[in-house]
């Protein structure tokens, strides 16, 4: 997929770069980001939503963000969804146009709200009543009017192949439509002097393959827009439908084309607007995984191999849950290949272990691979989303580097942490020093 192929040395190549050379030059574990594919994924959204329907596409930073990624997203004409002061700061330092930034989060601090208003972000997506009042106060102090959307909980819970309409009142995110909290929130927002309500937001889940759940969410949201209009005379100008399109990780995953996703969602919104005789709102979507996920791979070096006769063969690599916590957290499944011997056929079943002191630190259970030897380079695919952004220093493992590859060029975009980085914030109080004899 993307710009991945096997070169004449039987090595895996990505973005025109030999992965074995990348591992040698930059070390492992190594995150490799295929720039062409990342851009292609941005463009698929831009074409399907922006060009076709005038909708706005904002990339979800939580998926993967850093200065280079923000720069590419900006160049591709997308906006940005940030959920913390840290993500906002990253966007600002990348000189991302702030009017294209949406600030999310269910517990923004007053400092974060102030920062967002000072940076003049495009929209603040208000999650709850507490935040609404606080934002009104902070905006008042700064003498500005905050442009906001209200996050609603539409009562649509999406699963891979189905959706159910229960349980969502019980969510830490947003104001539920079903029990009236949303309507009360809207009325309050319309009353407050320092906020300007632009519309509504919802997000029904992630790694979704069932497009009908979006049509269903659109229906619930537009019905609410109509209800609000009937009760207050207010017409929502904007409707943010969140992110969530699923990607291929493992056999059986069947991602839907972005165009189909756009057509189903926009079709539903337009149809319901027509039915209620409402203007079609400006639509916003905020994909993350489906842009960054397929564009990333992680390279590891094989180390210890432990064959427990009749039980299992453990092949340990030099990373694991520190750089990819998803298998340990969600039992996520990944595929991998031996990057330095792509011509060899799978010959044995092994399990890929990480190097953390934790039995759950397994990257892949039971995968058929060519016979592995220490020093082999293992490439795990679809690691562009929620890997680097969720990485950690458990066991004081330094976080890996990230390189951006394109047309045979490889540029470091995140440098590898070193041991000094690990103790950078450590402090020995003076009184401990004085007791040392
Ligand atoms: N918008 C909102 C409000 C969200 O909460 C999310 C993801 C997105 C957009 C982007 O969704 P995407 O297009 O990436 O599905 N750590 C988990 C995923 C958590 C998703 C959180 N919200 C994982 O590794 O699978």
From TrEMBL:
It catalyses: meso-2,6-diaminopimelate + H(+) = L-lysine + CO2. Its cofactor is pyridoxal 5'-phosphate. One of its GO terms (biological process) is lysine biosynthetic process via diaminopimelate. The keyword Phosphoprotein does not apply. Residues 32-384 form the Orn/DAP/Arg decarboxylase 2 C-terminal domain. GO terms for molecular function: diaminopimelate decarboxylase activity; pyridoxal phosphate binding. The active site is at 357 (proton donor). Its EC number is 4.1.1.20. Residues 44-292 form the Orn/DAP/Arg decarboxylase 2 N-terminal domain. InterPro entries: Ala_racemase/Decarboxylase_C, DAP_deCOOHase_LysA, De-COase2_C, De-COase2_N, Orn/DAP/Arg_de-COase, PLP-binding_barrel. Pyridoxal 5'-phosphate binds at residues 244, 286-289, 386. The modification N6-(pyridoxal phosphate)lysine is found at residue 62. It comes from the Bacteria. Pathway: Amino-acid biosynthesis; L-lysine biosynthesis via DAP pathway; L-lysine from DL-2,6-diaminopimelate: step 1/1. The keyword Lyase applies. It is an enzyme of class 4 (lyase). Substrate binds at residues 289, 326, 330, 358, 386. Keywords: Amino-acid biosynthesis, Decarboxylase, Lyase, Lysine biosynthesis, Pyridoxal phosphate. HAMAP family: LysA. Specifically catalyzes the decarboxylation of meso-diaminopimelate (meso-DAP) to L-lysine. Homodimer. PANTHER family: DIAMINOPIMELATE DECARBOXYLASE, GROUP IV DECARBOXYLASE. Belongs to the Orn/Lys/Arg decarboxylase class-II family. LysA subfamily. This is Diaminopimelate decarboxylase. It comes from Desulforamulus putei DSM 12395.
């Amino acid at each position: 997929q993307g710009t991945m192929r096997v070169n004449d040395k039987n090595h895996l190549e990505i973005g025109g770069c030999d992965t074995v050379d990348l591992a040698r030059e930059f070390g492992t574990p190594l995150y490799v980001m295929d720039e062409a594919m990342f851009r292609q994924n941005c463009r698929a959204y831009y074409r399907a939503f922006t060009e076709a329907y005038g909708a706005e596409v904002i990339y979800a930073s939580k998926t993967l963000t850093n200065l280079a990624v923000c720069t590419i997203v900006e160049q591709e004409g997308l906006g940005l969804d940030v959920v913390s002061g840290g993500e906002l700061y990253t966007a600002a330092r990348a000189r991302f146009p702030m009017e294209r930034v949406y600030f999310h989060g269910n517990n923004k601090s007053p400092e974060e709200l102030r920062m967002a208003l000072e940076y003049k972000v495009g929209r603040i997506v208000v999650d709850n009543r507490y935040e609404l009042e606080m934002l009104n106060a902070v905006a008042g102090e700064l003498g500005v009017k905050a442009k906001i959307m209200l996050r609603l909980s539409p009562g649509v819970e999406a699963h891979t192949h189905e959706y159910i309409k229960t349980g969502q009142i019980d969510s830490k995110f947003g104001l539920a439509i079903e029990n009236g909290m949303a309507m009360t929130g809207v009325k309050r927002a319309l009353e407050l002097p320092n906020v300007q309500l632009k519309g509504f937001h919802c997000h029904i889940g992630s790694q979704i393959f069932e497009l009908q759940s979006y049509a269903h969410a659109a229906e619930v949201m537009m019905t609410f827009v109509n209800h609000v209009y009937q009760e207050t005379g207010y017409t929502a100008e904007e409707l943010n439908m969140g992110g969530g399109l699923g990607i291929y990780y493992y056999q059986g995953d069947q991602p839907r084309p972005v165009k189909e996703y756009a057509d189903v969602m926009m079709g539903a919104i337009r149809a319901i607007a027509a039915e209620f005789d409402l203007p079609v709102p400006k639509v916003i979507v905020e994909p993350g995984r489906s842009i960054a996920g397929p564009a990333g791979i992680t390279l590891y070096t094989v180390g210890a191999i432990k064959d427990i006769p009749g039980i299992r063969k453990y092949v340990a690599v030099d990373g694991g849950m520190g750089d990819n916590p998803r298998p340990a957290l969600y039992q996520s499944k990944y595929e991998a290949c031996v990057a330095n011997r792509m011509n060899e056929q799978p010959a044995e079943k092994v399990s890929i272990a990480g190097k953390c002191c934790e039995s759950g630190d397994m990257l892949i259970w039971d995968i058929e691979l060519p016979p592995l030897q220490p020093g082999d380079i293992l490439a795990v695919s679809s690691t562009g989303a929620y890997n680097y952004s969720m990485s950690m220093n458990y066991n004081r493992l330094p976080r890996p580097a990230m390189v951006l590859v394109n047309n045979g060029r490889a540029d470091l975009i995140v440098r590898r942490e070193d041991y000094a980085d690990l103790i950078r914030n450590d402090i020995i109080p003076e009184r401990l020093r004085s007791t040392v004899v």
